[in-house]
Amino acid sequence: MRGIVSIAGYVPYRRLQRSAVAPLFGSGGGKGTRSVASHDEDTTTMGVEAARLALRSVPGAAVESLWFATATPAYLDKTNATTVHAALRQPGHVAAFDFGGALRSGAGALRTGLSAAGTGTTLVVLSDRRDGLPTSVDEASGGDGAAAVLIGDDTPGTPVIAEYLGGASVSDEFLDRWRTPGDRRSKVWEERFGETRYLSLGSEAWESALKSVGMSAEQVDRVAVTGMHGRAVKALARTLGVRDGVLADDLTTTVGQTGAAHPGLVLASLVEQAGPGQVLAVVALADGADVLVFRTTEARSAWSATEPVADQIAGAADVPYGTFLSWRGMVTPEPPRRPEPARVSSTAAWRNEEWKYGFVGSEDRTSGAVHLPPSRVSMKGGAVDEMDPVARADSEATIATYTIDHLSYSASPPIVFAIVDFDGGGRFPLELTDVDPTTVGIGDKVVMTFRKLYTADGIHDYFWKAKPVRSGGAS
After folding, report:
1. 292-301, pLDDT tens digit by residue?
2. Helix axis angle, 191-213 relative to 230-237, nearest 10°?
C-alpha cells in the first residue's frame, strides 16, 4: 500500500485585503483575502517551511528522494531542490530534483511519486508565488504558499495515513494561460474558450479516475476542485455528481490560488480535517486535468498536523496594499541611504553549509557550552576541536534584548534585530521577521524560519531568521 505518510501546507503570515485595491486605483480587488509572501520569502523558503512541518509530524522518518515543483523558481539552471535539501539537513545520498516551469508540475510531481510503488520514501514539495499587474484578476485571485507531502509504502515505522487508490490524467494542447521566460505576469486567452476545454477535460478525468478505483461519485466523502481558471473550476464542481456537502473549500477566498502548490495545499487541508476511512479526491485543472483519489487509514487517528492549514489561515495579519506593491517590485520606495549588500561568496557558503543552511552550531563535550556559529575553540576552558554538532533550527528561543534599525539596508525597513537565548543553550543575534516592531518585547518567545536575507548579483543569500510564537494560530 502506497500513499501519504505525512502532509503539511504552509501559508505565509501576511494577507492582502482585496478591498484595499479599488480605493487606490478605482478598480480591481474584490472580496476576501489573499496570502502574501513576505519580502524575505520566495518559493524555496516557503517550500522549506512546508517540508519542516510535514517531517515534524513523523519524527525519524527517512527521506530517500526530494522533489521540488514550482512555476516560479528562485533560480534557473541551478537546482532549487538542493537548497531545500540543505535546509532540511538531508544526507548526500538523498537525490534532489526540480519539477518546474508549469502550473501542472505540482500535480505531476504528486502523481509521479504516488504511482512509483516500491521506490522508497519521496518528499514532494510544491511551492508557488503568484503575481499580477495592479488591479488585475491574477493579483487579486492569486496567492502564495507551499505544501509538502511525504509519500511512501506502508511500514510499521512510517504508516500510511491516506492510501492512494488511484487517479487519472487527461492532457490537451491549447493556449489558455502562458508566460514567456523573463516575464513576471501571465497572459490569459478569452475565458470562455478555457472554460469549455477544462469542463470537458475535467469531466473525462473525473469519470476515468472513478472507474479506475471502482467507485461512484456518491462514494466520495470530500473533493476539492482547483485551478487558475476560476470559472472552469466552479463549472466543473457543479457537474461531479457528488452528494451535498462533499465539495470542500478550495481556499481561494482566504488564501487565493497558489498555482503549482494548490493541489497539495488543498489536499493537506482535506487530510487534516478527515477521519479514518474517508475517501478524499483532488481535481486539478492545468493544461488538462489530473485527479487523485485517497482513502484515509486507521493510522490517521494517531497522526496530527504540526500547524494545520486552518490555524495558519486564522493566525494571519494584514499587509498594507502599498507595502504589498513594494514587496512585489511594482513600486520602488526610497531605500535607506546605505550601500546595498555585496553578493554572498559561493565558496564560503559551501564551506559553512551546515551552519548557513541547517543552523547547526557546536557544543563543547566537556563544559556543554553551545557556540553559535560553530567554533573550534570552546568559550569555557579553551578546549580545541572537542565539539559535537548541535542543531537549533527546531528550538524555541527567548528575546534577551532587541533594537529597531531604521538605517541598515533592507527591502522592507525597519529591521528588527534581537539577541536570543535558545532553549537548551546558545545565544545569537538574529533578524526578526513577520513581526510588528511596536509589539516586540524582551522575554518574547520566537522560533526559527528559513528566509532570504537579500539578493545581490542574482544570488540569493539564504539564512535563518526568527519569528514570534503566536498562541492560537501559526507560529
Report:
1. 999 999 999 9
2. 40
